[in-house]
Design brief:
Blueprint lengths: L4 H24 L8 H15 L5 H5 L1 H15 L2 H13 L3 H34 L1
Length: 130
Amino acid sequence: MTPSPRLLAAVAAGGAVGAVLRYAAGEAVTDGTGFAWTTFAINVSGATLLAGLLLLPLARRSPVWAAGLGPGLLGGFTTFSATSEQARALLDDGRTGLAAAYVLGTLAACLLAVNLVGALAPRMGEEAEQ
């Protein structure tokens, strides 16, 4: 199945905005050489927002908006590649424990956030429809 040009355009536009937001956040709050808190916060907040995306009536009603906001904006905002590179840099510096804590902590926090939204989403969806 080939996606429609409108869906591709929405993903491209959202991805561009998400990538710029991620870059701006990294410039505004630099990580330094230790635990990459900025990238960690970007990934956890992005995972949380993506998990709750379908709570937005606009995203539920419009595949174009869902694609633009989900894989587009939030896909461009979150960054596994930066997480991987930061973990590699920590390993190169001999900081194996911190690298492991960073990778596992990122994964655990994102999964916890997604599960929390999943648990709250049914109640939040009911309230939104009332």
